[in-house]
Design brief:
The chain has about 325 residues and is mainly alpha-helical. It is built from 15 helices and no strands. Helix 6 packs across helix 7, helix 9 packs antiparallel against helix 10 and helix 11 runs antiparallel to helix 12.
């Protein structure tokens, strides 16, 4: 595979390397050794590519620092270099990769601290997730995981919450506080969690569970606000419309309740229960024909409670008809 000239060059290089190792073992300065390495054209090309890659990396770091710390912008730009690094250093020998990444990570930690000192720490959670994705692509799972944890801790700290030391508590606290306004961050976080083999955070379900807890405490107005966030996240979530109807019904807003029950029915959610509760709202509005129709449909769908309520509504309907007849006479 090699020409005689190349083999001779490799032999010279091996002799030089042996002298270097010997000097190193004796604690001598290796730079004082005469080292006329034989370098081929392709070695030179690799060296040029290597130096060019470092030039690009440092240029990217300086550009990110400028737009983060010095550019006259209302909102600092999230660094782009972490998104590009996997392509830039894909060809680097693996033995150099940890040292390079440690240097870059230390530089970004400096940038993180400087950004926070400027009072612009709100971009830190996203910055760390970008860096975590980059580390994952480069195969460093542990450092990627560490950046994800720090991202969640930053998110909590920015909201005045002390972050627990252990990850499970950290994630639990995050789930208790996150709302629909952070849906972009949660989507980004979920991509990172999936890389780690963890279950993604289902934000609509979290908000719905929180709304149901508020409803059980009879805090219906707060529950409605949370359910509206659920609809914002998942517009076709029939369960959320159903519980919106229930909360409005508890507040005696029966016409509003009916509108939300209509949506739940259109989406096919728990039709027996929805018809039953919509029938109750019609009943409270004294719209007995509509109430009877809903209760009858609920009975057909297997709702046992609707049978008794159907009888009650028919009694009220008969009484209403009787009064109307008496008024005519």
């Amino acid at each position: 595979f090699y020409s005689p000239e190349e083999l001779k060059g490799h032999g010279i290089n091996l002799e030089i390397m042996a002298r270097e190792e010997d000097a190193h073992s004796q604690g001598l300065d290796e730079n004082r050794i005469y080292r006329p390495y034989c370098i081929s054209d392709y070695n030179l090309e690799d060296c040029v590519d290597y130096l060019a890659m470092f030039h690009v990396l440092y240029a990217g770091l300086f550009i990110d620092e400028y737009y983060l710390l010095h550019a006259p912008l209302e909102t600092p730009l999230v660094p782009l270099l972490p998104l590009l690094i996997p392509e830039l250093i894909d060809e680097i020998y693996q033995q150099y990769l940890p040292e390079i990444m440690d240097g870059i990570l230390n530089y970004y930690e400096f940038l993180y601290a400087s950004v926070e000192a400027k009072g612009e720490g709100f971009i830190l959670p996203e910055m760390r997730l970008n860096y975590a994705e980059m580390l994952w692509e480069l195969g460093d799972r542990d450092k990627s995981q560490n950046q994800i944890y720090k991202s969640i801790a930053d998110w909590l700290r920015l909201r005045g919450q002390p972050s627990p030391l252990e990850y499970p508590e950290l994630l639990t606290q995050f789930k208790q506080l996150v709302t629909a306004s952070s849906h972009n961050y949660v989507a980004h976080l979920n991509r990172c969690l999936i890389h780690l083999g963890e279950f993604p955070i289902k934000l609509p379900d979290l908000c719905l569970d929180r709304a149901l807890n508020l409803s059980q405490q009879q805090r219906y107005t707060e529950a409605i606000a949370m359910l509206n966030e659920v609809i914002e996240l998942r517009p076709n979530y029939g369960k959320a419309y159903y519980y919106l109807g229930l909360c409005h019904s508890h507040l005696q807003r029966y016409q509003d309740a009916i509108l939300f029950y209509d949506h739940a029915i259109d989406l096919g959610y728990r039709l027996d229960n929805v018809h039953h509760h919509r029938g109750y709202s019609y009943f409270k509005l004294k719209l007995y024909d509509e109430a009877i129709a809903d209760y009858q449909q609920a009975v057909r769908l297997g709702c046992k409670q609707a049978k008794q309520n159907l009888k009650v509504v028919k009694v009220f309907q008969q009484d209403q008809l009787k009064r109307e007849q008496e008024q005519k006479n």
